From TrEMBL:
Residues of the full protein shown: 1 to 410 of 678
Tagged with keyword Repeat: no
Full protein name: Elongation factor G
The keyword Nucleotide-binding appears for this protein: yes
Gene that this polypeptide is encoded by: fusA
GO-annotated molecular function: GTP binding; GTPase activity; translation elongation factor activity
Length: 410
């Protein structure tokens, strides 16, 4: 059995987007890169993920499970599906409840659309740290800075621009890494599987240097440590810049912004690096709260394997004729074959099987520790929103309440 990932290397993320912004394409690319890293499938061309899933390719849908697990730079990333359509607001709410960070996808032409605004504000409500990916830089009319401005105006975000587009529309060639001051060049021979870090072409150096200056300035506004060194005109090492971006992102004071084209496989790897660098692990967010069902007293459950079990069922799907319940474990350990309490319904349930869902396969695991998200087979009565807990230490996690979105009329 695979070794369990340390909790600090777990990322539970959602990709939130207006319909058509490119969420599916971005997810496919993410699975392409992460799949290749783990040698799950043979990659023959840029369509690797789809090679593993011919059926989905025909239907034009890649991922059907509510959560997909993948690995990047020794981190375990669970991508939680969040519906893009505003009609599914309740479902968005549910998924936002269980994720620790999100990547907002925007179209470089369409910008921040009303639906993205709604989901973004929902994520704000749950205090979910966010990054942004400005997609479709290759499309006619693509305007990166316009979208960055809209993020400020419409989302009230404080953007921290980490990659810059090199060219746009037909001429979109890739991205510049603002922190390192390099060009992340597309490698034709590997269909973008490998990137070459090259020096920024002469005629773009000033632009990249200015962007780095602007990033430090934006960081100074929200981070005193950077402010002091920035004012002192000190050279700030890369690692310190990354650490400051992470603090800003997790502290909800800044939004790391990336750009690229998911379709053309450009600019996606920096987003994955961003997920592991800047978005929080389950220990970086406040402990989950709930109440003791006997006394009504408020209790907190720490994100530790050794604490009593507290988990939330957030989605129930039929899977090959059987009920598959997706569960986020907040504290303690969920074990295959284990029995636990569903305090809301006053019943005991047993987990017959625990499954980690990957893009192209499912993996049976014996246990799921604090911070994990797994599919559970065998739960008979548990429904969405139910808590599962240790019968000796019962807790009822905060119920999922319905948030009425403010929809701006376009
Ligand atoms: P979703 O509805 O957010 O999941 O969006 P999809 O990933 O299905 O993409 C919507 C459409 O935009 C599809 O036709 C994609 O091929 C296209 N698309 C996605 N990313 C890009 C991109 O980077 N550039 C261009 N030109 N088209 C893209």
């Amino acid at each position: 059995m695979a070794q369990r990932t340390h909790i600090q290397k777990i990322r539970n993320i959602g990709i939130i987007a207006h319909i058509d912004a490119g969420k599916t394409t971005l997810t496919e690319r993410v699975l392409f890169y992460t799949g290749k890293t783990h040698k799950i499938g043979e990659v023959h061309d840029g369509q690797a993920v789809m090679d593993w899933m011919p059926e989905e390719q025909e239907r034009g849908i890649t991922i059907t499970s509510a959560v997909t697990t993948c690995y990047w730079r020794e981190h375990e990333i669970h991508i939680i599906d969040t519906p893009g359509h505003v009609d599914f607001t309740m479902e968005v709410e549910r998924s936002l409840r269980v994720l620790d960070g999100a990547v907002g996808v925007f179209c470089a032409v369409g910008g921040v659309e009303p639906q993205s605004e709604t989901v973004w504000h929902q994520a704000d409500k749950y205090r979910v740290p966010k990054m942004a990916f400005v997609n479709k830089m290759d499309r006619l009319g693509a305007d990166f800075w316009n979208v960055v401005d809209q993020m400020k105006e419409r989302l009230g975000a404080h953007p921290l621009v980490l990659t810059l587009p090199y060219g746009a529309e037909e001429d979109f060639q890739g991205v510049f890494d603002v922190v390192r001051g390099t060009w992340i060049a597309w490698d034709e021979a590997s269909q973008g599987m490998h990137f070459e870090e090259r020096p920024v072409p002469e005629d773009r150096r000033e632009e990249v240097a200015r962007a780095r200056e602007s990033l430090l300035e934006a960081l100074s506004e929200v981070d005193d440590a950077i402010l002091e060194r920035y004012l002192g005109e000190e050279e700030i090492p890369e690692a310190d810049i990354h650490a400051a971006v992470r603090r800003a992102c997790i502290g909800l004071k800044g939004v790391p912004v990336f750009c690229g084209s998911a379709l053309r496989n450009k600019g996606v790897q920096p987003v994955l690096d961003g997920v592991v660098r800047y978005l929080p692990s389950p220990v970086d967010i406040p402990p989950v709260k709930g109440e003791d069902p006997k006394t009504g007293a408020e209790v907190e459950r720490p994100p530790r394997d050794k604490a009593p079990l507290a988990a939330l069922a957030f989605k129930v799907q039929m899977d090959q004729g059987r009920k598959l319940t997706y569960v986020r474990v907040y504290s303690g350990m969920l074990k295959a074959g284990g029995e636990f309490l569903n305090p809301g319904k006053g019943i005991r349930e047993r987990a017959a099987r625990l499954l980690l869902m990957h893009a192209n396969k499912r993996e049976r695991v014996q246990e799921a520790g604090a911070g994990s998200i797994v599919g559970v087979m065998g739960l008979k009565e548990t429904t969405t929103g139910d808590t599962l807990c240790d019968p000796e230490h019962p807790v009822l996690l905060e119920p999922i309440d319905f948030y009425k979105p403010v929809i701006s009329v376009a």
